[in-house]
Write a structure and sequence with these properties.
4-stranded parallel β-sheet; Rossmann fold; 7 helices; alpha/beta
Length: 192
Amino acid sequence: MKDRLDTRIADVRFVINQLANPKGSHTDFFSSLDQNRIVITGHSLGGATAAVAMATDSRIKAAANIDGTLYGELPKPDGPRPFLLLESNKEERDRYVRYEKGNQKLFKQFGGSYRYEIMEADHYSFTDAPLLLAFPTRVVAGRILGFGNIPTRTHHATVDILNAFFDGALNGKLSDLDSIAKRHGINRKPVE
């Protein structure tokens, strides 16, 4: 997993470098992008990638990890930046020791951290997988795989929280994040 994470970090760095040095027929598009407003998010290994990419690249101004477990050592970031952990139900703490250790380390290193747990969500609730099944199959599969009966609630909450987080991170106004989460019945979890 560490090798996979390293490959993804290299991919992120490559993309950001390409945005900064556009070549070819899309130069006008790339030159219109604001290089001071780069943010990153991902789910699972993509979420871990987002966190580590921000720690290793100061061009990334904020990161959101959606239910991702970190692998390997986290490099020390060059300063505090907003970090969001949006996670599924983690009541069985013993199963998530590596997950918790890695994220606690992130919270300490990034400074401005936010953490929300969607209690009815499972790891796959954040994906499109539950939506690809027809209604009765979705209910049965949801009970077996644990992604709940109404994944659209998780999707709406995730989109609203991410929008508020990144808008606030880029504009210096993260104060609305808790109220948006509460609108979806989600409370902020303490960061140790």
